[in-house]
Design goal:
two-stranded antiparallel sheet; two-stranded parallel sheet; about 280 residues; mainly alpha
């Protein structure tokens, strides 16, 4: 029995008359801005100068956008490489005439690959610290960024869940839906926010930051485990891959498994070695 449902039909953004600031883009700006401020606080605590933070910001922004974009193309929309190649790298579509589209497809699994790679070079060139030192600290901010970005997905009425009769159901009118669906964007958003507060507490109030790899391992284990289970409530981004592995798992779940394993290894093996 359906208790209640909420009709969600927001405007695409803040209309300035000559330009629309899309909520999804705004969420990215907020995520990077708040992340920069909180990372500055951590760098001050670690005795790191501000100029190294400026370099970090550039590395993370580029790695996030490039990694997430390429991740989407390779994992979810490889046909773009043949059908509209330049749209892979540019916020324009040339398939049916020139059109500004923005980067509509961004995959978190791609960012999960791109950011650590970029941070390896950052740590080596600018920080002179172990790779996991910066991964441990930046993972806290990435969890918070995940909260804002999933809210952006909610504003875009995308990446929502399957039909539901629960009281949490949302009718995504802007996407043409007429029945309530799980607002899986919000499930993920508030899960990631909770993870951020836990990691923030562990950094400031415990000695876990001294166990190299522990905080990053916790991030990988919890975030991608959450993603794995929430995927059961989501509509598959590629319909034919909804249960293409073992007749049960979709693309997002398969990509999450190795990241969870990495998290387990970092928390319970790698960090223990560095603590001894």
């Amino acid at each position: 029995m359906q208790i209640a449902s909420f009709i969600w039909d927001p405007s695409p953004g803040i209309d300035l008359g000559f330009f629309i600031i899309r909520y999804y883009s705004l969420m990215f700006v907020i995520a990077f801005s708040v992340g920069w401020l909180l990372t500055k606080k951590i760098y001050k605590n670690e005795g790191q100068p501000d100029d190294k933070l400026d370099s970090l910001f550039i590395y993370v922004v580029v790695a996030t956008l490039v990694g997430a974009r390429l991740g989407h193309v390779f994992f979810y929309q490889p046909e773009l490489l043949k059908e509209d190649f330049f749209s892979v790298f540019l916020p324009f579509s040339f398939k049916n005439g020139f059109q500004f589209t923005g980067f509509r497809g961004l995959a978190s699994h791609g960012a999960a690959i791109g950011i650590p790679i970029a941070l390896y070079f950052y740590a080596k060139k600018h920080l002179q610290k172990p790779w996991l030192f910066i991964l441990d600290r930046l993972a806290i901010m990435v969890a918070l960024a995940g909260f804002f970005i999933r809210f952006g997905n909610f504003f875009n009425s995308e990446i929502y869940g399957k039909e539901t009769v629960s009281s949490f159901g949302v009718i995504f009118k802007a996407a043409g839906e007429t029945v309530p669906r799980h607002p899986t964007q919000l499930y993920e958003a508030f899960s990631y926010l909770t993870l951020f507060f836990v990691m923030w507490y562990l950094y400031w109030k415990t000695d876990k930051k001294q166990q190299t790899g522990y905080l990053f391992g916790l991030f990988m284990l919890v975030l991608w485990s959450l993603r794995f289970f929430i995927e059961f409530l989501k509509e598959a981004q590629i319909a034919e891959r909804e249960d293409w592995v073992f007749n049960a798992l979709n693309t997002g779940q398969i990509l999450s498994v190795p990241l969870v394993m990495i998290g387990l290894w970092l928390m319970f093996i790698k960090s223990k070695k560095t603590a001894n």
